Amino acid sequence: MEATDIYLVPYHSYEPDHRFSLASGRFAEVERAIAAREWPYDNGDDPSFFALRHDDGLLTWGVCRRDVRTKIREGSICVFVAFTKDGELIRYRMSAVATVAEKLDRRQIFVDRRFQGKTYINILIRPGIDGWKYDENDRHEDHRHSDWLWRMSDHMNMNKKQFADRYAEIYKVECFSDPGMMIARNYVLFSEETDKTYISCQPPLVAIAENGEHERWVSADLRTLTVDTAAELHHMHRNFLRSKGRGYTHRQLTFKLPPNRAIEWRQSLISALRRS
Q1: Which parts of the chain fold into alpha helices (H)?
Q2: What values do phi and psi take at 42, rounded to 5?
Q3: Facing residues of 28 across strands?
Q4: Distance (Å, whole) CA 32 – CA 9
Q5: Could you give the C-alpha distances from 257 to 139, 191, 230, 260, in angstroms and in order?
Q6: CA gap 165, 168 in Å, rounded
Q7: pTM here?
Q8: Which tens digit of pLDDT belongs to each residue from 140-190?
Q9: Three-state DSSP state, 71
């Protein structure tokens, strides 16, 4: 049997800035919840923890880390860790262990009964008069994704510039109906089974970092099960979430385990997270 892919995925949960006052709808609700420190939600609710906790929705992932969403397979396991800047420090809280159940074409969300009556802001589009309309109007333009089409599409071996040039008119009018453009099945739906997915009610602080440094873990058990396990199996023996230096410092950390060992590892991690 093929090995199980495991992804340690940091996501940004930051305090709203002055542009928050220009937000509306569900995006504004998520930002208010982050400001109130209700839970370490992603600012675009991606993964959709806010929809899950407030609407009894499903846990989905559809905007961030397109590279992971495109190649991730059913049965893969994601460990989500929120990171938040706190003065000169960055604090890390482990939010969830989640197992991929399905990968969808995001247009299915509007016809699939499982999603009806729920509000998701990580879909990027909505039905329009003659096709599909880009939809991030609930947030300040600085918080929108100018490459929204790239994030949801099959790139057909094009690089990002080639793709942008080919679909420049769609980006301009912010809608499409082109049957020749392939929307990828990269909207990720996670399992609801309790032995496969666990979302912490109060995500524990697991690590702290300073700018320019790797994080320092404060939870020995959770470190052993995550970055230390990854270091044994990762091709570069990487054992940290945060890279040193500037720029994009929180790239996902991946490793593989044989299927039976992956099941045991997931249960051990869920148990440790429950205790924390």
Answers
A1: 25-35, 49-55, 66-71, 148-152, 160-166, 168-173, 220-223, 229-233, 259-275
A2: -70, 145
A3: none
A4: 24
A5: 40, 19, 10, 8
A6: 5
A7: 0.96
A8: 999 999 999 999 999 889 999 999 999 999 999 999 997 667 899 999 999
A9: helix
Task: Answer for the pair 220, 196: CB distance below 8 angstroms, yes or no.
Answer: no
Query: Tell me, what amino acid is at 189?
Result: L
Tokens of residue 76, six digits? 């893969």
Phi, psi of 23 (to 5 degrees): -85, 165
- Which amino acid would we find at residue 42? D
d(CA 260, CA 268): 13
E strand intervals along the chain: 4-12, 60-61, 77-86, 89-104, 125-127, 132-134, 175-176, 187-190, 198-199, 205-210, 216-217, 253-257
Check: CB of residue 51 under 8 Å from CB of residue 144.
no
Query: In this structure, what token pair is assigned to residue 209?
Result: 């970092």
What φ, ψ does residue 158 adopt, rounded to 5°? Answer: -85, 150
